[in-house]
């Protein structure tokens, strides 16, 4: 009874911890999105400088990652040559900087709820780019699913009360760059046996992002900021915003490390619905029935895609276990045969 009870307690503890990690990630992701919207929106804090905000995040995250790795040694740095950094990390950093710049820029023009609906296109973009770079095999049923997600997002866009073409272009660009980055991580890093957790990823990628963002910042935002003599850097607002951004990366590390990437995808869906509800009830963004119907269709498509990925993963694991079991059985058979041969030779002696 005691043994069974302790096992039950262990399982309950594990489930509670998993839910805690999910809740922390949802809260921090929710907070960063709403906080960024608050800072950038002209009707709120009114600081419409997305490149500057992203650069603040990158410099803060790079500094903290350096301290955690070099001073506190929380995680070990990855062994990486200069050639590997330039050929693999730099392109990923360039794509990440473009993705962050465009996604933060979209908050100036679009509502939080509509941005979450557009983000439902991420599996479509990842799959399409994966097929293009031959990292994914083309499957007609998967493509039909991708088209259903796209159709749902198109309906949501049609029903958007405050549709802004430039904002949509920015967000779609952000999705495209982020999807390309995820595929490039597979091609340039994972295929070479290099895995970066969120802390080591920030350690290597954040400084690179900062340098890339410096180029458009000099020409686009610096001249405007120079003329804005009334602006004073608010350490409380930008400091807490940067802490939230870094904490979100740590939460990703915990969530994926202690649960799975699929759990994060499911949690992401919950977060999106919460953000839509928050955007409608608190920020007072207009969410139309057509919006919800379209996003509902896209949501079903994304849910089916995640389910298919899970089934494929389970089948792969089962195949791997079966192969290991066959290998083990073969090894045992060989041992028995060799033992039998040994005994036979002894009896003949």
Automatic annotation (TrEMBL):
Lipid bilayer topology: Multi-pass membrane protein
Subcellular localization, as worded in the UniProt entry: Membrane
Keywords: Membrane, Transmembrane, Transmembrane helix
Cellular component annotations (GO), alphabetically ordered: membrane
Transmembrane segments: 16-35, 47-72, 84-102, 108-130, 165-189, 201-219, 231-255, 262-283, 289-306
Pfam families (alphabetical): TPT
Superkingdom: Eukaryota
Region (Disordered): 324-349
Chain ranges of the Sugar phosphate transporter domain: 20-306
UniProt protein name: Sugar phosphate transporter domain-containing protein
């Amino acid at each position: 009874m005691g043994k069974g009870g302790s096992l039950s307690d262990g399982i309950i503890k594990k489930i509670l911890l998993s839910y805690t990690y999910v809740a922390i990630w949802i809260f921090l992701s929710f907070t960063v999105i709403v906080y960024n919207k608050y800072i950038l929106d002209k009707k709120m804090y009114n600081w419409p400088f997305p490149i500057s905000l992203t650069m603040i995040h990158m410099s803060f995250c790079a500094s903290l990652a350096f301290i955690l790795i070099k001073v506190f040694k929380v995680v070990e740095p990855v062994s990486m040559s200069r050639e590997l950094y330039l050929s693999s990390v730099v392109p990923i950093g360039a794509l990440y900087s473009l993705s962050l710049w465009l996604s933060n820029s979209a908050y100036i023009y679009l509502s939080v709820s509509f941005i979450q609906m557009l983000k439902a296109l991420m599996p479509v973009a990842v799959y399409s780019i994966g097929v293009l770079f031959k990292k994914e095999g083309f499957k007609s049923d998967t493509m039909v699913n991708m088209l259903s997600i796209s159709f749902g997002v198109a309906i949501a866009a049609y029903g958007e009360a405050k549709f802004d073409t430039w904002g949509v272009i920015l967000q779609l660009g952000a999705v495209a760059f982020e999807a390309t980055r995820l595929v490039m991580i597979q091609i340039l890093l994972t295929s070479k046996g290099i895995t970066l957790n969120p802390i080591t990823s920030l350690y290597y990628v954040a400084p690179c992002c900062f340098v890339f963002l410096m180029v458009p910042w000099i020409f686009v935002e610096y001249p405007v900021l120079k003329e804005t003599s009334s602006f004073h850097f608010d350490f409380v607002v930008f400091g807490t915003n940067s802490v939230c951004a870094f904490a979100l990366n740590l939460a990703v590390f915990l969530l994926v490390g202690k649960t799975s990437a699929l759990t994060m995808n499911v949690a992401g869906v919950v977060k999106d619905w919460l953000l839509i509800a928050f955007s409608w009830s608190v920020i007072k963004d207009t969410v139309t029935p057509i919006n919800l119907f379209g996003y509902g269709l896209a949501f079903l498509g994304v849910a089916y895609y995640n389910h298919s990925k899970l089934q494929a993963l389970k089948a792969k694991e089962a195949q791997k276990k079966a192969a290991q079991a066959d290998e083990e059985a073969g090894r045992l058979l060989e041992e028995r045969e060799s033992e039998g041969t040994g005994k036979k030779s002894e009896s003949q002696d």
